[in-house]
Amino acid sequence: MIVAVIGLGSFGFKTATRLYERGIDVLAIDLDSELVERVKDRVTHAVSINITDERSLRALNISDIDLAIVAIGDNIEMSIMAVASLRKLGVGRVIARAANQIHEHVLRDIGASEIIKVEEEMGDLVASRILAPHILNHFYFAAGYSLVEIKAGKLFEGKTIVEAKIKQNYSLNVVAIQKRVPYITDEGKTAFKVEINDTPMPMDLIEEDDVLVLVGADQNFDRLFQDIGK
User: Fold this and answer.
1) pTM assigned to the model
2) Which domains does the chain have, with CATH numbers?
3) What are the backbone dihedrals phi and psi of residue 142, each rounded to the nearest 5 degrees, phi first?
4) Which tens digit of pLDDT belongs to each residue from 82-101?
5) Backbone φ/ψ region at 57: left (φ over 0), alpha (ψ -120 to 50), beta
6) Each residue of 198-209: b (16+ CB within 10 Å) or e?
7) How far apart are CA 113 and CA 144, in angstroms?
């Protein structure tokens, strides 16, 4: 999979480097050569070009990428022009960051596949962590759907996945379980290592300190958060 990230401010930089760390081929693009220099060793390829210059985009074979993320947040006009250029050149899936509601409407009208509202989503995350401290990470990956990492806590302690009835009660899918496993070091001391079970089975046991990785609709997470925080 090849992903282009356009705009290398804080949000774009973090998105590009995280994707690359997870094995994705990342093309990082920004007009600011200093930002490109900063990211070049942490992505597959980084280039300084004007995103509205079609000739430069064609030279990058931009139409061959699988996904473009327009992370520009402080220049609405440039963001709109970037999405329009990418769609004109045949990029099938374009995710764009919106600064406000009007910006969002315009991006959708010109062909953005998905919209990211960073400030709003970060506000939701901060509020969620205050109200539900068992939430470790919350990733919005599509409209109305999320991937959430939570501590299992007392609600699921000592139960298998079947017994926990997460799917039946909340319509959420357990996609991974992270455990802290004790071991003895060469010095004879007790330490812990993290093990991730990315193919959890129905009879796998959940412990209080386990981290559950769940996927599903946001409204279903709301019900779980209420129950797990009791």
Assistant:
1) 0.58
2) 2-116 (3.40.50.720), 120-228 (3.30.70.1450)
3) -165, 165
4) 999 999 999 988 999 888 88
5) alpha
6) eebeeebebeee
7) 14
